[in-house]
Amino acid sequence: MIEVEVEVRDLKKYYTSGVLKKRYIKAVDGVSFSIKRGETLGLVGESGCGKSTLGKLLLRLIDPTSGEIFFDGINLLRLNRKELRKIRPRMQMIFQDPYASLNPRMKIGECIAEPLKLQTDLTKREIRERVMELIETVGLNTEHVNRYPFQLSGGQNQRVVLARVIALNPEFIVADEPTSALDVSVQAQILNLMKEMKEKFTLTVLFISHDLEVVRHMSDRILVMKAGKICGEEPVKS
Ligand SMILES: Nc1ncnc2c1ncn2[C@@H]1O[C@H](COP(=O)(O)OP(=O)(O)O)[C@@H](O)[C@H]1O
Ligand SMILES: [Mg+2]
User: Fold this and answer.
1) Confidence band (pLDDT; 50, 70, 90) for 236?
2) Nearest residue (CA) to ligand 1, atom 1
3) Which residue segments constitute the domains of the chain, with CATH numbers given?
């Protein structure tokens, strides 16, 4: 077993802008680090410094300008479409806005069942059982299964997203400001739930936030990002 789960080397993502005169936005500009199996690495930095771009690069949701990304020893940039599709369930992303991750026309139960239908060969009955189990794991109750996202609060919807994410037993999760859109009163509940999940399923996590206090609560180690670069580490205890 390889101890390092995720490693990036000199990763860059440049965007171009401007019609007549080309300008480069160096969203991620030469970033290197690794995350150990079961570790939560915090990534903190001001808005616009490149955190979300880095998170998406790590899961190959977008392609880098240059650099290397390894997941479980596999060079992600060398994979073809089919190989990538196969590896996808092992890596998941949680976004800031739970509504954006959920199909508004799908009932909660269907939202959670969807990845199981698409990616596993469980029977209908097994899927139903697994959905109920997941609902309980994330602290929702069975009544929620037949409701729609708009009928739930932001915090409850983020629980649905968490259930969907853990449905396929992923190993690596990028959580991009997962509680920033929620009421302050429910943020701590969701953060603590994520911590529980991480322990229970031995997840490796990149936890992104602009809020150092939140990152400190969640992380084993913290990197600070500024203008596309990692500019230092922040102690976990203040
Ligand atoms: N698709 C895109 N096209 C052009 N520029 C982008 C795109 N996505 C992000 N950027 C730019 O890259 C920089 C980093 O953005 P982002 O990764 O979203 O930062 P953060 O998540 O830290 O707020 C910003 O200047 C942003 O405007
Ligand atoms: Mg962002």
Assistant:
1) very high
2) 15
3) 36-63+79-234 (3.40.50.300)
